[in-house]
C-alpha cells in the first residue's frame, strides 16, 4: 500500500517536491535534535539514527551517512570495551588489586 502511495506521489511533481521537502525537514530536525541530546543522558544517538533513517527513505547520502556512522560507533565501542577489559586485567594483576 505504501509503495502504491509513493508511486502516486512520484507522478505528481509538485506533490513529490513537497513530500521530499517534508521528509528532509522532519529528518533534519530529528538528526540535529539528536546531536544536541548526545552529551546528555538519554537516547541521543538513537534519535540521530532515527533522523538519518527518515532522511534515508528519500536521500541516498543519508543512507550512506547512517552506515558510516554505525561503522564508526561500532569501532569506538569495540575499542572502549577492549580498553576497559585491559584496565580490569591490569588491576587484577597488580598487588593492590588482590
TrEMBL record:
Q: Give yes or no: UniProt keyword rRNA processing.
A: no
Give the record's keywords alphabetically: Membrane, Transmembrane, Transmembrane helix
Q: Where are the transmembrane segments?
A: 21-38, 44-62
Query: Which InterPro entries is this protein grouped with?
Result: CHP02611 (IPR013434), Uncharacterised_PGPGW_TM (IPR019099)
Provide the protein name: TIGR02611 family protein
**Organism source for this protein?**
Microbacterium salsuginis
Amino acid at each position: 500500500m505504501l509503495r502504491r502511495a509513493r508511486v502516486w506521489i512520484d507522478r505528481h511533481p509538485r506533490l513529490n517536491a513537497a513530500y521530499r521537502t517534508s521528509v528532509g525537514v522532519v529528518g533534519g530536525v530529528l538528526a540535529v535534535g539528536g546531536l544536541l541530546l548526545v552529551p546528555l543522558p538519554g537516547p541521543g544517538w538513537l534519535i540521530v539514527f532515527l533522523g538519518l533513517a527518515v532522511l534515508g527513505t528519500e536521500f541516498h547520502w543519508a543512507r550512506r551517512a547512517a552506515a558510516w556512522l554505525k561503522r564508526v560507533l561500532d569501532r569506538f565501542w569495540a575499542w572502549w570495551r577492549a580498553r576497559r577489559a585491559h584496565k580490569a586485567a591490569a588491576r587484577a594483576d597488580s598487588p593492590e588489586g588482590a
